[in-house]
Specification:
Blueprint (H helix, E strand, L loop, with lengths): L1 H10 L2 H16 L2 H17 L9 E5 L2 H7 L6 H13 L4 E4 L11 H5 L6 H9 L3 H10 L3 E8 L16 E3 L9 E2 L1 E3 L3 H4 L4 E4 L12 E3 L1 E4 L2 E4 L1 H10 L4 E5 L7 E6 L2 E4 L5 E3 L10 E3 H5 L12 E5 L8 E3 L5 E3 H14 L9 H22 L2 H26 L6 H33 L5 H9 L7 E14 L2 H7 L2 H21 L3 E6 L2 E6 L8 H25 L7 E16 L4 E6 L1 H16 L3 E4 H5 L6 E8 L7 E6 L7 H19 L4 H12 L4 H11 L6 E3 L4
Parallel strand pairs: 1-15, 1-16, 2-3, 2-16, 3-7, 4-11, 5-9, 22-24, 25-27
Antiparallel strand pairs: 3-6, 8-14, 9-10, 11-12, 12-13, 17-18, 19-21, 19-22, 20-21, 22-23, 24-26, 25-26
Helix pairs in contact: 2-13, 2-15, 5-8, 13-14, 13-15, 14-15, 18-19, 22-23, 23-24
Protein name: CHASE2 domain-containing protein
Keywords: Membrane, Transmembrane, Transmembrane helix
InterPro entries: A/G_cyclase, Adenylyl/Guanylyl_Cyclase_3/4, CHASE2, Nucleotide_cyclase
């Protein structure tokens, strides 16, 4: 068993290794659930420490509810948009970007409005001569640095309209197309507007599964053609740059590493997206559209700035979920990433982040797992809490001080999994070891006592309690002389086999092993667990022991080994049962006169010629007992005579023969107990019929010596 435990212990190390390996696989697979947990943690970081707002060269002309109420519902006529562009140009905005797609002609143009009117031909000619709103806007776009927005659709032929003013980036270190989000078609502004604008940029976000916009793409693709986003083009036009550069990462970390736009370098994800570190909403960056059109905006608010035109009105449905909680207008996400680009305050997930996370997982996970395997629960739990705290704190510190996005969720899952699996294996091993110790301990102490101590640890206290118990004492006759006649090793082997089965019989009857003294065994019933039928158990146990001992001795004697017979005494009574000894060692046993009486009953067998003696208290608790009276024995050192019985089914003779002879014996015994002189003749007759009956011979000798009555005073132990 111990060898098996050692072999199994060698496999325990693989438990934390398995946990760490599984979580490493989870890290590589990066399923949606893991991403959701990771993003939730980073969102919490942003809520705890949002980006500190700095008043930069970014403004948002907001088509808000107040503007809609003052100017009219959306869509506004294009001449209004042209007025807005003209005001921004006159205030010397560096560049203007529209978070709006002008994909359809203006339906408020006079020609368009008059199509359904029944007007005379001359009037129609006059109306047709009026300027078209889209043409007005197109002429205004030519005089300003305006970036028009367009949206992308997943389905489509993968081609870009030729009239769109798009700049193809310069790629360095490889082709970025395999890593960029792919779309199939473009919802473009009108050709007349597109051809008049300085540039065009995509408005499309690629939100996560929960709909939260955490990253803004700087470059996308339609088919195999790269297209810039609104942010990218606004930065380029605002700086007067001719192009932008997409730099790829090394082969060890494939994908896009950064995008350089003029003097601005934006670190990106491998897909060309920039993480947004959101600042709380600030009114400084907002210019209500109605104020701009009303001439209430000063040049200082616009001059040299990048201006985004978008809407926060709920009715226009351009709302997005934010990591800070709640919803924001889509234009604010563009504004936030522009502010980060101009203040160099990016959120960044470095290429080495996965390696650091994996090393943390492996080192801390294996360490905690091994500690959980071999240390106590308290220490391993404290170490796990410390490791989890350090991992989460490390992620938070990297975010708060360096604006780095380090995943502490997956390493924490791995550490906790290693602790959990290690603790489970430790618990399993402890239970297995406890079972082994219990089994081993049960070879020294009675199994029911071991179970009682395990189930009731409070019982391990000095002292005892009064209980009524039954006791079985056995002794082996002639073993000392046997040791002198045969090899001591052989004698010990014979004794061990004998004791092993005797104790097995006792345990089968749920007895408690009180002690083994040489070749003698003492068994107790009804302690530590109460047994209402303790007399019956003791009686049955004594008879089973005697049957086995008799057959064992006969088998050995047939082989020429003079193995002696076994004597047994059984008694019951009130005793003090408990733990005796001191603080160093306990001895669970029973103290009281019934214990000594049971030992004396075992001993008197050699004087009576019997093998088993039962006290009257034991017989009283055994219904239908097949036994006969031995006599009222006054044991040595006692004053009260005790009625003692001999069981007839003790294995020395067939039960039927014993039962048939019982009436004659009982008649003779009654005569002897009454002092009737006829008792001598009755026992003479029994002795003639049963010359080998030891009790008949005992009483016959007494009667011949002139003794009478059933009381026998024992002068020896």
């Amino acid at each position: 068993m111990r060898h098996a435990l050692r072999q199994l212990r060698r496999l325990y190390f693989f438990a934390p290794l398995l946990a760490v390996a599984l979580v490493c696989g989870l890290m590589l697979a990066d399923p949606p659930l893991v991403r959701t947990l990771r993003h939730a943690l980073w969102d919490q970081y942003q809520r705890l420490q949002p980006r500190v707002y700095q008043d930069t060269a970014v403004r948002v002309v907001d088509i808000d509810e107040a503007s809609l109420a003052k100017i009219g519902q959306w869509p506004w006529p294009r001449y209004r948009i042209a007025q807005l562009v003209e005001r921004l140009h006159s205030l010397e905005a560096a560049a203007v970007g529209f978070d709006v797609v002008f994909a359809e002609p203006d339906r408020t143009t006079p020609a368009a409005v008059s199509r359904d009117w029944p007007l005379p031909a001359a009037v129609r000619e006059q109306i047709a001569a009026l300027p078209d709103n889209d043409d007005l806007l197109a002429r205004q776009l030519k005089s300003a640095n305006v970036v028009l927005g367009f949206s992308l659709e997943r389905e489509g032929p993968g081609t870009v309209p030729p009239f769109m003013p798009l700049v193809t980036p310069v790629a360095m270190g490889g082709a970025p197309q395999p890593f960029v989000h792919r779309f199939g078609s473009v919802v473009a502004p009108l050709p007349v507007l597109s051809s008049s604008a300085a540039a065009a940029g995509a408005l499309t976000f690629v939100p996560d599964n929960d709909g939260v916009v955490r990253r803004v793409p700087l470059v996308l693709r339609v088919g195999d053609q790269l297209v810039p986003s609104l942010v990218t083009e606004l930065l380029r036009i605002g700086q007067g740059a001719d192009n932008y550069l997409v730099r790829m990462g090394p082969s060890s970390n494939p994908g896009i590493a950064e995008i350089r736009i003029g003097q601005v370098v934006v670190p990106t994800t491998r897909n060309g997206e920039a993480w947004v570190h959101y600042a709380t909403e600030r009114q400084q960056r907002l210019i209500p559209a109605w104020k701009l059109l009303a001439g209430e905006v000063t040049p200082a608010d616009v001059q040299g700035r990048l201006v985004l035109v978008g809407s926060s009105a709920q009715g226009l449905m351009d709302l997005r979920f934010s990591p800070l909680g709640g919803v924001i207008p889509g234009v604010e996400a563009h504004a936030q990433i522009l502010e980060q680009a101009l203040t160099d305050s990016y959120l960044y997930r470095p290429g080495w982040a996965v390696a650091v996370e994996a090393i943390t997982l492996v080192v801390a996970g294996l360490g905690i797992g091994l500690l959980a395997l071999y240390a106590g629960v308290l220490w391993s739990a404290l170490a796990t809490a410390a490791a989890l705290g350090a991992t989460v704190w490390g992620g938070w510190y990297a975010f708060a001080s360096q604006h780095l996005l380090i995943d502490s969720i997956v390493p924490s899952i791995g550490i906790f999994s290693a602790f959990l699996l290690g603790s489970m294996v430790h618990h399993f091993a402890s239970e297995r070891r406890q079972r082994w110790v219990r089994q081993a301990f049960s070879r020294y102490v009675s199994p029911n006592l071991v179970k009682h101590i395990v189930d009731n640890p409070d019982s391990l206290e000095l002292g005892g309690q009064r209980l009524t118990c039954s006791f079985v004492f056995t002794d082996l006759a002639g073993f000392t002389s046997l040791m002198e006649k045969i090899d001591p090793g052989e004698a010990v082997a014979l004794l061990n086999r004998y004791l092993d089965e005797m104790i097995h019989i006792a345990f089968a009857h749920e007895g408690t092993l009180d002690r083994i003294v040489g070749d003698a065994v003492a068994i107790m019933f009804s302690a530590p667990v109460h047994q209402p039928d303790h007399q019956k158990r003791a009686y049955d146990c004594a008879l089973a022991m005697q049957r086995y001992a008799t057959q064992y001795a006969l088998d050995l004697q047939a082989k020429g080994i003079p193995f002696g017979h076994t004597r047994i005494g059984v008694h019951c009574g009130e005793v003090i049962v408990g733990n005796f000894g001191g603080s160093t060692i306990f001895d669970y046993r029973a103290l009281g006169d019934p214990v000594n009486t049971a030992a004396r009953l075992e001993s008197v067998n050699k004087h009576l010629g019997t093998r088993v003696c039962l006290s009257e208290d034991v017989v009283a608790g055994v219904p239908g007992v097949l036994a006969r009276r031995v006599g009222r024995l006054t044991l040595k050192g006692k004053t009260r005579a005790l009625l003692v019985w001999q069981p007839l089914n003790d294995g020395l003779a067939p039960d039927e023969a014993e039962a048939a002879a019982l009436p004659a014996y009982e008649h003779a015994y009654d005569l002897m107990a009454a002092g009737n002189p006829d008792a001598l003749d009755a026992f003479e007759h029994l002795a003639h019929e049963r010359p080998d009956d030891p009790l008949v011979q005992l009483h016959l000798r007494r009667l011949r010596r002139g003794e009478s009555g059933e009381v026998i005073v024992m002068t020896d132990k």
